[in-house]
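Q: I have two molecules that I believe assemble together. Could you output structure tokens for the complex as a whole instead of separate predictions?
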Amino acid sequence: MTRGVAPYLPSGWGWRAMGAGTVAMMTSMASSSELDPLGRDERGGGPCCDRGPGSPAEWVDRHGDALFRYAMLRVRDRDTAEDLVQETFLAALEASSTFRGDSAFRSWLVGTLRHKVVDHYRRHRRGGSIDAAPTDSAFREDGRWVEPPAGWSADPSELAENRDFLAVVRQCLTGVPGRAADAFTLRVLNELPATEVCEVLGVSPGNLWVLLHRARAKMRACLEVRWFSARPGVTSQ
Amino acid sequence: MRSCREIALLTSQSLDRRMTLRERVALRFHILLCAACGRYRMQLLGLEAVLRRGAATLEGPGARDPAGDGLSAERRARIQRQMIGTDEHRSPGGLDAR
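A: Yes, here they are, computed for all two components at once.
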């Protein structure tokens, strides 16, 4: 059963993005456990999960904090994150009759919020030009490293479950300058293809490469200082 | 031979687009001779992997920072009021499925 778009959704909300492609994408997301980061019950307790979405007020209690953290990581602004979560719940109200089971509902919420994050960036493009050849303090004038990357004894790919490490990752992300952080968020955290990131942010591919390069370099350097060389027992090779 | 500065930019791009043959060769060749850029590349690859996988965990409960733990009580209440209000408004029209 399909319903029309909610007449009471905030104006300016970009439902134009919700074409058939979006729906297909969200359907495929629902089957991907990797993209269902919130697939755990925060308040419920007990092994049950598919007891249905419950009442709208319960939705907020059950999923609100996790959705907020999802948005907060990606927009880095409390008010904006809360607005996006609010819009997501209102959209859920409109589609509520289509949900079967709580975990599918979660997936739907996350998928919808994910699109709202992208739309947020599309609606709030930053102006100004991007310096394509910035002075990069990591390198000398002749293009050599000022301080070559140190060896890391831990393999970062083994740290995906380490909450302490991930907390440091979040802190480091806040240190990445605005537009580079936006590009990094859409490309790496939201896993959009590079061409789509260019379209959303309104930047050329050349500019995107520079932004992503800056973000990764900054993240790498931050994590080196705050994790890989700060840990006792971890030595440079 | 390209400089380390150029190779760092190219390394990042290799995560986002297909490299040309010339670029792949330049990257490989440089890394063969330059341990620092080789480490840089491995670290970027590792971070990319952990962030893509960890993006699921990053917003999980417990991954806290001062501003990131949850909705404010005020906002939670506002959303709930708004949703219940909308619900009541809609029910008389027979649109409510429950």
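A: One point stands out. Confidence is low (pLDDT under 50) at residues 1-50, 233-237 of chain A.
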